[in-house]
Specification:
- This protein is an all-alpha fold and 200 residues long.
- It has 2 domains: 98 residues, Orthogonal Bundle (Rna Polymerase Sigma Factor, Chain: A); 77 residues, Orthogonal Bundle (Arc Repressor Mutant, subunit A), CATH 1.10.10.10.
- It contains 9 helices and 2 strands.
- It has a two-stranded antiparallel sheet.
- The radius of gyration is 17 Å and the shape is elongated.
Length: 200
C-alpha cells in the first residue's frame, strides 16, 4: 500500500517534464498541447471533487489552463510544476464554488472495493489501518469547513506532501499540518461518534 502511494506521488510529479515546461514558456504550442493532455485528467478531477458538477468543473479547468498559459513565463521552478498547477486549479475551483448559491461537497473517488482509508487524528503522515464505508466518509468530508476539507483531500486523496499542500494553498507548512491534523480529527469524531474507532 505504501509502495503504491509512492508510485502514485512520483507519477503525479512527473506528469510534465522540465523541458516541456521550458518549451511552453517559450510559446511552443505543441509543448503546450502535450502539457494539457498530460495533466487534464488530474486537473479536471480535482475541480470536480471541489464543485461536484461536471460543467462547473469543466469551466474551472478551462479557467485553470487559461491562467497557467498567461502566467507560465513567470513560473520559476521553485516547486514542482504540478504543485503550482494544482494551486491554480484549486483557486479556480474555489472561486467558482464560493460564487455558487449552494455549498457543494467534495466527491471522493471510490477504491475498487468501495472503501477508503481513514487516517488517525494524531498523524500528519501515513494513514492508519482503519477503513470505513465510502458513503460515511463522503458525508463527513462534506460537513468539514472548506479550508480543512481542501487540505485533507490534497494530502490524503491526492497524496501530496505537507510541503506541497502548503504550496498549493499558499500557507505555511505549519498551517498546512494543523489543517490536515484538525480535519482528520474531525473526520474521526464524525465517523466514530462513540469513540469506538481505532486506537491512536
Amino acid at each position: 500500500m505504501r509502495g503504491q502511494k509512492k508510485v502514485r506521488e512520483r507519477s503525479l510529479t512527473e506528469l510534465v517534464s522540465a523541458e516541456t515546461v521550458e518549451r511552453c514558456k517559450q510559446g511552443d504550442r505543441a509543448a503546450w498541447d502535450a502539457l494539457v493532455e498530460a495533466t487534464y485528467r488530474e486537473v479536471y478531477t480535482l475541480c470536480l471533487r471541489v464543485l461536484r458538477d461536471e460543467q462547473e468543473a469543466a469551466d474551472a479547468t478551462q479557467d485553470t489552463y487559461l491562467k497557467v498559459w498567461r502566467g507560465i513565463k513567470g513560473f520559476r521552478g521553485d516547486a514542482a510544476f504540478t504543485t503550482w498547477l494544482y494551486r491554480v486549479a484549486m483557486n479556480a475551483a474555489l472561486t467558482r464554488n464560493r460564487g455558487n448559491s449552494r455549498r457543494r461537497a467534495i466527491e471522493v473517488a471510490a477504491e475498487p472495493e468501495a472503501l477508503v482509508a481513514l487516517p488517525a487524528s494524531d498523524s500528519t503522515e501515513a494513514a492508519a489501518g482503519a477503513r470505513v464505508e465510502l458513503g460515511v466518509l463522503e458525508t463527513a468530508l462534506a460537513s468539514l469547513p472548506e479550508h480543512y476539507r481542501v487540505a485533507v483531500v490534497l494530502r490524503d486523496v491526492y497524496g501530496r506532501s505537507t510541503a506541497e499542500v502548503a504550496e498549493a494553498l499558499g500557507i505555511s507548512e505549519t498551517a498546512a499540518k494543523v489543517r490536515v491534523h484538525r480535519a482528520r480529527k474531525k473526520l474521526k469524531s464524525m465517523v466514530y461518534p462513540d469513540d469506538s474507532g481505532p486506537e491512536e
